[in-house]
Every structure is written in structure tokens, then in C-alpha cells.
Amino acid sequence: MRRKLAAGNWKMNGTGAALAELEALAQTIGTPGCDVLICPPATLLHRAARAAQGSAIAIGGQDCHAAASGAHTGDVSAAMLADTGASHVILGHSERRADHGETDAQVRLKAQAAIAAGLTAIVCVGETLAQRDAGDTLAVIGAQLAGSVPDAVTGATLVIAYEPVWAIGTGKVPTLAQIGEVHGFIRAQLTDRFGMQTGAAVRLLYGGSVKPANAGEIFAVGDVDGALVGGASLKAADFAPIVAALAASRAHP
Ligand SMILES: O=C[C@H](O)COP(=O)(O)O
Q1: What are the catalytic residues?
Q2: Which domains does the chain have, with CATH numbers?
Q3: Distance 169 CA to ligand 1 centre (A)
């Protein structure tokens, strides 16, 4: 049975004062019955990991370099993330693919580096509105999975986040049927490539305008094992109800 995961991506938001939200979240959720992850900006990782110690909250990065070390000004390696206390890293988010031109091949190398450093890689995939309107959604997701996911993964080292680009930060959410179709497709792709055991063990997150008001219905969709939440993860008062909705949701076989 896959353990559910509520992951918050703070993106480029938050200075030291934001740690109060992390502490408030830890207090509010207690021991929630699902995994909870906060991915703050790199500048806050070390302090966030310290603030989360002894709580149910794990800490993750938002990107890493594919190399272990070297002349890469401004970049952070997977081992450096792990050294701060991070256990996960988000990779291939559509904002990084768009802002930094990250390719599937680069995301794959980053995921390999993350796993080698002992981190769980959360690999993001998702179609643009033009791709959906053209009927290309599954082809795009299939190509991203094939290109971005390394060959050696397990349910412990890989999480996939399906984030339709057009749903991120827009308040627009796919229909439950659309979410179910893509999650079912991702599950089938993973099972085809990695076999039944690994395919069934990898957790699949939905991301894109998840809020307390819509979390429950999204978590009821088959093969949705949790969420990758942006805006609504910044405040404990918004994220805690999403964690509670996930913990209360039925486990998917
Ligand atoms: O990583 C998180 C996603 O990009 C979703 O962001 P959002 O919840 O603000 O739409």
C-alpha cells in the first residue's frame, strides 16, 4: 500500500519569518497519518530542517545540479541538499523547464544524482494548454516520463508529480476524469517499464491549484496518492486542511 504524500512547494517565496508557518503547520498536523513534505527555497533549507526536527514534516529542495561538485556558480548539488537535512528534491518542475530550458535528459541526470545522494526524486511532468487542446496530453506525458525518469528507481526513490502547466497558480483545475486519466496512464507507463512491483509502489501526486476546498475530491481519484501544492502550502492555515483531507482519504490499491 502506498503511503500518501502531501508536498508543499514554496517556490521563490519566504525568508526567515516564513519558518513560523512551518512551526505552526507542525503543531497543527501533529501525527497526520500521511507523509508531509515542505520544499522551501534553498536559503531556508537548513533552518527549515532544524525547525521541523521531531515533527511529521520532512524537508526537500526544489532543484539540484546533476554533478556532485565543481565549477557551477550558483548551483547546489544533491549531496548539499542532503547535507542540510533534506530528504527529497523536486526536479523538472515546469517553471524550471520554462525559465531555465531544462530538458528531459537534464532532469533524468538530476534525478540520478539525487537518488545517488540518498534523496527521493519528485519528477514533474505536465502538458501545456496548447498540448491538451491539440489532444497531445498523453503523448507529452509519456515522452516526459520516458526521458526524465532514470532506469534504476524504486517506490522509495521516485515520486511522480503530474502538474498540468495551465493549472499552476491559475485557479483552473482539470476535471476529476482528466486527472484520473493521466494518473492511470502514468501508472501504466511505470508498470510497463519497471514491472508490477515498482510500478505499483511509486507515488503519483497531482499538482495545480490544489486548495482546501477541492483537495478532498481530488484525493478520491484513483492513483492520486497526494498533492504537490504551491500557493496553498505557504500558510499553515491553508496547508493543514489539505494534509487532513489527504490523511482522511481512502487508500488506493
Ligand atoms: O509545485 C506546485 C505547483 O506548481 C502548483 O502550484 P499551485 O498550487 O500554486 O497551483
Answers
A1: 93, 163
A2: 5-13+26-248 (3.20.20.70)
A3: 6
